[in-house]
Amino acid sequence: METSTVQGGTARADDVRTRDRVTALLLEHGPQTASELAGRLGVSPAAVRRHLDGLAAQGRVEERATPGGHRGRGRPARHFHLTDAGRSGFAHAYDDLALTALRYVAASGGPDAVRAVAQAQLAGLEQRASDAVARADGAPVERARALAEALTAEGYAASASAIASGGQLCQHHCPVAHVAAEFPQLCEVETAVIGRLVGTHVQRLATIAHGDGVCTTHIPGPAHTGDRVRDHTRGGNRSTLAGPVPGERAARAVPRQAGPAPSTSTTPTNDRERTPA
User: Which of 4, 35, 93, 247 sits at a 20 to 30 Å CA gap from 171?
Assistant: First the structure.
């Protein structure tokens, strides 16, 4: 059993390495047929097609007919292309460029200038998400669910759920995590955007930028404490006293009968004089 498990793990690791080599060849040499890839890899076309099918299922490559590639009889030559998702697996310098730009902004204008850049960058996201949130129910948790769908479409892999104290919005991916680790203004502005979209004050509990596994935002809802109803979703966090139950209302309406005042006399007296029979 242990031997088969090890062999299975080794086979999967070999598949991963081969598929990485396939994508690297497509990046380096451009679109290619399965036969061309097989020749470069030193494997059979059937073997490379199995790996291409796996990459296509992951969205990393796609097969397309090449214009002008039809020579003679038969079907036109079909080439495999690297998709945007496939290209994203390779190293980029985007983070380095963003960090360099924000460091320059911070040195020139200070933290407020960085915050202004973050606000400008997230303005478009807020506008796009607001259209989806506007169609949701007025409750903050329902708006958070609509916001999660909008954020997922933007690449944040977000989800929202109701919890005992209100709601919770989770973002399982952060496109700017490395930059936000150095410039927390990005997280601060994003939190403010979430609050405006769901319609209430929210609290960030965790962020990927600070080493957490997921960005978690708490959305407070109505909380009950004894006979007080505290509504966190309305301005000022106002508290209102709940009305008394009917029994208590009756008890409060009838004042308690006052007892006799204590006597201050030192002469013993009887409550009532006795008369002889």
Answer: 93
Rounded to an integer, what distance in angstroms lies between the CA atom of residue 203 and that of residue 187?
A: 11
Q: Could you give the CA distance from residue 44 to residue 211 in angstroms, rounded to a whole number? A: 44
Structure tokens belonging to residue 183? 């410039």
Per the CB < 8 A criterion, the answer to whether 80 and 65 are in contact is no
Query: For residues 125 and 192, what is the distance between their CA atoms, to the nearest angstrom?
Result: 12
Do 76 and 64 form a contact (C-beta atoms < 8 A)? no
User: How many angstroms separate the CA atoms of 134 and 235, rounded?
Assistant: 20
Residue with tokens 């980029």: 92
Helix or strand holding residue 128 (H, E) = helix 111-134
Contact 106, 113 (CB under 8 A): yes
CA 38 to chain centre: 42
CA 217 remoteness from chain centre:
8
- For 202-256, the pLDDT digits (tens) are 999 999 999 998 999 999 976 544 444 344 444 433 333 334 434 444 444 444 4
With the CA atoms of 223, 220, 170 and 195 taken in that order, what torsion angle do they form, in degrees rounded to the nearest 10? Answer: 170
pTM attached to this predicted model: 0.54
